[in-house]
């Protein structure tokens, strides 16, 4: 079970890093607008392409967008010899909070699926890990909740409540005003769409101090203390609807682990997303 728990914990933290691509950046200071920084750019999406000269304006434009409640996403993460690819979708709001589904391909351990429904995390473990945990082949899912008493819930339960913050763009953009600076901007074309490209420098200490969730802040403080890196670089591409379509974020070297990069792409902002919990007869009860 130790190996299973560690792998699962790492994956949840990776999900946090992916969403943090827009989270840990920006103080409201003037930026160096390197290329065509006026607001008279061409159209992309349904609006007029804008270039924001400071993080305060950028954050406000993104977080106040009524389409910023659901999207599809793909993710690639690499650090040293380790790598992972993922794809999925999420939606925010409603009585049940965040709903999310994600399938991850990890060469080191196999494929894993995650779903978040009604503040409960469900994980479909790779067959190799499921076998080590003694799970029946017809019950490939495990349930992780904040108040669970099983080993995985004890390890990951405190992080489940913070998943809303990891996928809520409006909450992420609140962090844009607190932890870094926009270094430069440029108008570009990405996948046939006109976008504004932002380069940012992130102050890790300020980012950690501004995390609203106590558990995430505690983990981040431990990581920051173990890292010699004080700032990291980040890039964000924002379309004419003032929504991010691509984020590339650095991850700092911590405790002997190499620095890495997380790349997230977003599509279909504002379109319906349907996520259902696995059938109860497919969920295994792990030993306590």
UniProtKB/TrEMBL annotation:
Q: Which InterPro entries match?
A: LolA/LolB/LppX (IPR029046)
- Stretch forming the signal peptide: 1-25
Q: What keywords does the record list, in alphabetical order?
A: Signal
Q: Origin, by domain of life?
A: Bacteria
Protein name in UniProt: LppX_LprAFG lipoprotein
From which organism does this entry originate? Kibdelosporangium lantanae
What are the top taxonomic ranks of the organism? Bacteria, Bacillati, Actinomycetota, Actinomycetes, Pseudonocardiales
């Amino acid at each position: 079970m130790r190996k299973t728990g560690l792998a699962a914990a790492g994956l949840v933290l990776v999900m946090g890093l992916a969403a943090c691509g827009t989270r840990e950046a920006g103080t409201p200071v003037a930026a160096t607008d390197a290329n065509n920084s006026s607001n008279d750019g061409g159209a992309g999406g349904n609006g007029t392409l804008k270039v924001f000269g400071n993080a305060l304006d950028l954050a406000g434009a993104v977080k106040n967008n009524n389409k910023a409640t659901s999207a599809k996403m793909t993710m690639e993460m690499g650090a040293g010899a380790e790598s992972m690819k993922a794809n999925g979708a999420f939606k925010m709001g409603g009585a049940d909070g965040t709903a999310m589904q994600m399938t991850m391909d990890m060469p080191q351990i196999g494929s894993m699926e995650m779903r978040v429904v009604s503040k409960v995390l469900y994980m479909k473990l790779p067959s190799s890990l499921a076998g080590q945990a003694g799970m029946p082949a017809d019950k490939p899912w495990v349930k992780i909740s904040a108040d669970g008493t099983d080993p995985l819930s004890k390890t990951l339960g405190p992080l489940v409540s913070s998943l809303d913050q990891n996928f809520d763009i409006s909450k992420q953009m609140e962090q844009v005003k607190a932890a870094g600076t926009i270094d430069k901007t440029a108008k570009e074309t990405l996948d046939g769409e006109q976008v504004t490209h932002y380069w940012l420098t992130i102050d890790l200490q300020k980012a950690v101090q501004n995390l609203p969730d106590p558990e995430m802040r505690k983990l981040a403080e431990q990581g920051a203390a173990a890292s010699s890196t004080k700032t990291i670089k980040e890039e964000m591409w924002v379309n004419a609807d003032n929504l991010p379509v691509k984020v590339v974020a650095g991850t700092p070297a911590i405790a002997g682990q190499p620095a890495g990069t997380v790349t997230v792409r977003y599509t279909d902002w504002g379109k319906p997303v349907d996520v259902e919990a696995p059938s109860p007869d497919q969920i295994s009860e792990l030993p306590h």
